[in-house]
Design goal:
The complex is a heterodimer of chains A (486) and B (331).
Chain A (H helix, E strand, L loop, with lengths): L1 E5 L10 E6 L5 E7 L6 H4 L8 H5 L7 H15 L6 H27 L1 H4 L11 H8 L1 H22 L8 E2 L2 E2 L5 H30 L2 H7 L9 E6 L11 E5 L5 E5 L4 H4 E4 L8 E4 L16 E2 L2 H7 L6 H13 L11 H20 L19 E8 L2 E9 L5 E7 L1 H20 L7 H12 L18 E6 L5 E7 L1
Parallel strand pairs in A: 6-11
Antiparallel strand pairs in A: 1-2, 1-15, 2-3, 4-5, 6-7, 7-8, 9-10, 12-13, 13-14, 15-16
Helix pairs in contact in A: 4-7, 4-13, 6-7, 7-8, 8-13, 11-13, 12-13, 14-15
Chain B lengths: L4 E6 L5 H7 L4 H8 L1 E4 L8 H6 L5 E7 L2 E3 H13 E7 L1 H5 L11 H11 L14 E4 L2 E4 L3 E6 L9 E3 L6 H12 L68 H4 L17 H10 L7 H9 L4 H5 L26
Classes of the chains: A alpha+beta (486), B alpha/beta (331).
Chain lengths: 486, 331
């Protein structure tokens, strides 16, 4: 028996690693994805002021701080039983939509996209944003950087800071949108919509126009039949900011639809001794180990899961793109993990269109942005769709509004079991014997990269690919071979 | 002339410091022109072994963000210290411990128990807990040790400079890198930011009364704060008087009080004690009971005054009182 250790994987925050065990015949016995990191937020927030939670919990993740800030802020609305003025809700969703566009753009162009645009087994030195620019042109590269910069600047001006926003309060937001800022949002929204359409075209040209990629996307190695969860609005369209949680079964039938407040009836977490990360599953089905199908409580969140859990998109261009995706991939539910990249762009278009609607809304500059809470706080639950999936914040407080209990289920925890399955399945399908080349390892990595995972809730930044060291050891732990990707 | 080599690395952090570097935008190109980035796991494909292969001191500088909580992080920062001529603690966590440093209010054991056994959604009838060494059916696996205490970078290795902020403002990052490249670095131990309190550069400074006194403290959600007036004068606990400037007052621009992420000025040893005394000096009363009542309005003093700096405080962490010595002591 030998082992392959992929450590560290680095387009993730923290230090994820993959431990692959091979049997005597060189067949993969099991590939484990381990998360060797813990910070303990749920414990040390006890005693903190509830109103500080949106700012404290944003430090879980500096890439998606807005998601934690917004889930926390909504949990405070619930905690204080206060309904924000209409303008405040719109401002929150305006800023949130802006965030969804720039965050999804980061993943497609900098992190996941290079695997397709440049190629899954292309020379490793090219499989990054620079390689993408080489393929699509310098102007496009500048456009990606420029649009993200413009959108992040808008977030900063509305929310105080783009990394660790401060504007969320129970009952509203701390600052109104000036007419001048509204104009800038409208201009940014127009850029974002065009950019989203452009990204869709890049996906059509690069992925759909290449039969090898289409075969890869639809191959069994990257397919799991699981449940899917996402927030939907009253018409069952995808919504990032608010709504009910809807769960589809592996056949595409509605399995559950519930209010976020009821999450504990439906979502539970499983603990394994070999990872610091917990694995969420559907309580209604139960934990039946790392396996897919209707008998397993394993479910998925994030872009593809949201499309599967909804009936469509609430804006026109995104709806067309959604229909194209579903019909091209043979109807719903779409079980192909790698199609998550496509779903992410469909969502980027929706976020941009929604941003444009809100930026054009005259109410967005209303000064009526706060309802002061009067109720005695007891318990509050807030849910949003983070870029990487359903994010749940749940607080209990004493009568002074100091936290007594907090429970946080982040997007990647909801996806954790399915990601573990995906890595294991891809490794089994692709690795045969300890003689593994670097391109093959990248194809194993693609199994989790599609989810845009945020382990320890985290970081992905500039280009580059994963630095990898694969050590192959014999039964006595002696190093047989080391594969380095540098 | 060969360009100086630099490294970026992260420990117990959130990735916000990495995003702050990305947010340099086109200025990243200026940085890349001036230096050779020899290690940046989040962005480039160099590995630990590449760092190990460098000569001691070969890196001109290592920028390290995040506090130190695991055995793996300690090994990495010790390695970088050997390889780098200059080590910069990058951001509030590396300098002062940061928000994850609030974990020093809890014991390691209570954190593990809470996360894996007690939290509301956990179903763990078997009492499973992550283990540093685990035998699975296929073989043996390991996890890094989760330390008892969160430490600042300079509690683990010698640190030359500090960049404040959560995350550090883009302007300060650029200035620090350029100062390094041009050999204009100040005295060792300096914080690379203006050395005056935020009130000095606050856009609302003119509305701060000379003899500011607070009659009642308010919490941010309890009031509709005037967007033009000094927040302290409105009874909000704004830590501007105790906090270093250099952020441009971003939070205050959003009509929210300063929470102190930029840390203390050079004249302060313990940030939280300084912040507490700055606020206490504003209490308008000479009457002991009244003062106690006013101070009592400040909910969660530890989380308010030591939000970013508990590991760097004089006590470093909560020290559990012996049960007999402190009956009914701190909960």
């Amino acid at each position: 028996m030998s082992e392959i250790m992929i450590d560290p994987i680095t387009r993730l925050e923290g230090h994820g690693r993959i431990h692959i065990f091979l049997d005597e015949g060189g067949t993969v016995d099991h590939a484990y994805l381990q998360i060797p990191e813990l910070r303990g937020f749920e414990k040390f927030v006890q005693g903190r002021r509830a109103e500080d939670m949106p700012q404290i919990t944003s430090r879980i993740c500096g890439v998606c701080p807005m998601a934690h800030h917004m889930a926390g802020t909504k949990a405070l609305d619930d905690l204080y039983q206060v309904d924000p003025p209409s303008a405040a809700k719109k401002i929150r969703e305006l800023v949130y939509s802006t965030f969804m566009v720039e965050d999804h753009a980061l993943h497609f162009f900098f992190l996941g996209g290079p695997d397709f645009v440049v190629g899954p087994t292309a020379p490793k030195a090219e499989r990054n944003i620079l390689g993408v620019i080489g393929k699509v042109g310098l102007e496009v590269g500048k456009e990606v950087i420029g649009v993200r910069k413009e959108l992040r600047g808008l977030i900063e001006d509305a929310a105080g800071k783009v990394i660790h926003p401060v504007f969320g309060l129970p009952g509203g937001v701390s600052r109104a949108i000036s007419p001048a800022l509204q104009e800038r949002f409208a201009a940014g929204a127009a850029h974002a919509v065009e950019f989203g359409k452009f990204a869709l075209q890049v996906f059509r040209d690069v992925v759909l126009g290449n039969s090898e990629y289409v075969d890869m996307v639809t191959s069994e190695a990257y397919t799991h039949r699981t449940y899917y969860m996402g927030l939907v609005d009253a018409a069952n369209n995808v919504n990032f900011y608010d709504g009910r949680l809807r769960v589809m079964d592996p056949e595409g039938k509605e399995f559950l639809a519930f209010e976020p407040r009821e999450y504990l009836d439906h979502v539970a977490e499983h603990v394994e001794p070999w990872s610091y990360m917990k694995f969420a599953y559907l309580k209604d089905v139960g934990w039946n180990g790392f396996t897919d199908g209707a008998e397993s409580g394993v479910f998925a969140v994030a872009p593809l899961a949201r499309l599967n859990a909804s009936d469509g998109m609430a804006t026109p261009v995104a709806q067309e793109a959604y229909e194209e995706l579903v019909s091209t991939l043979g109807g719903k539910p779409v079980h192909y993990t790698l199609a998550t990249h496509w779903a992410r762009i469909v969502e980027m278009v929706y976020a941009a269109e929604r941003l444009a609607e809100l930026a054009a809304d005259p109410e967005i500059t209303s000064p009526d942005i706060r309802t002061l809470p009067t109720a005695t706080p007891v318990e509050g639950i807030g849910v949003v769709e983070a870029p990487r999936g359903t994010l749940i914040h749940h607080y209990q407080t004493d009568e002074r509004g100091l936290i007594t209990q907090a429970n946080l289920i982040v997007a990647t925890q909801n996806n954790a079991a399915r990601i573990a399955l995906s890595v294991d399945k891809a490794a089994r399908a692709l690795i045969h014997g300890p003689d593994v080349d670097e391109g093959l390892l990248n194809e194993v990595e693609m199994a989790f990269r599609a989810y845009d995972p945020c382990f320890g809730c985290a970081t992905h930044a500039l280009p580059g690919q994963m630095p990898l060291i694969v050590e192959i050891r014999d039964l006595r732990g002696e190093l047989v071979r080391e594969i380095r990707r540098d | 002339m060969t360009k100086p080599k630099v490294a970026f690395y992260w420990c117990a952090s959130c990735g916000g410091c990495e995003e702050a570097v990305v947010d340099l935008g086109e200025d990243v190109l200026t940085v890349v022109e001036a230096v050779d980035i020899a290690f940046w796991p989040v962005a480039l494909d160099f590995k630990v072994s590449d760092v190990e292969a460098l000569a001691d001191g070969e890196l001109a500088a290592a920028f390290v963000n995040g506090a130190v909580r695991t055995s793996e992080q300690q090994e990495m920062v010790e390695l970088l210290r050997r390889k780098a001529g200059t080590v910069v603690a990058f951001g509030a966590c590396a300098w002062l411990g940061g928000i994850p440093g609030l974990a020093n209010l809890s014991s390691r054991e209570s954190i593990l128990r809470h996360v894996y056994h007690e939290s509301a959604s956990v179903q763990n009838g078997d009492g499973a807990m992550p283990q540093e060494q685990i035998d699975v059916p296929e073989g043996r696996m390991t996890l890094p040790h989760f330390d008892e205490t969160v430490r600042t970078l300079d509690q683990v290795i010698d640190v030359d400079y500090y960049l404040p902020g959560c995350p550090p403002p883009v302007g300060l990052i650029t200035a620090a890198v350029m100062a390094l490249v041009e050999g204009r670095l100040p005295e060792k131990g300096s914080v690379l930011a203006p050395d005056v309190a935020l009130c000095a550069e606050c856009p609302r400074a003119e509305t701060k009364p000379e003899d500011l006194k607070v009659k009642a403290f308010k919490r941010p959600h309890e009031v509709l704060a005037d967007p033009d007036l000094c927040l302290l004068a409105q009874g909000l606990v704004c830590l501007g008087p105790a906090t270093r400037s250099g952020c441009g007052g971003a939070c205050i621009a959003a009509n929210m009080p300063c929470t102190g992420c930029m840390g203390p000025t050079s004249r302060v040893i313990d940030y939280g004690a300084k912040a507490l005394s700055a606020i206490a000096s504003l209490l308008e009363s000479q009457d002991e009971e009244e003062i106690a009542a006013l101070a009592g309005q400040i909910a969660d003093p530890v989380g308010t005054f030591y939000r970013y700096s508990l590991p760097a405080s004089l006590l470093h962490r909560r020290v559990e009182p012996a049960a007999a010595a402190r009956p009914g002591g701190a909960s």
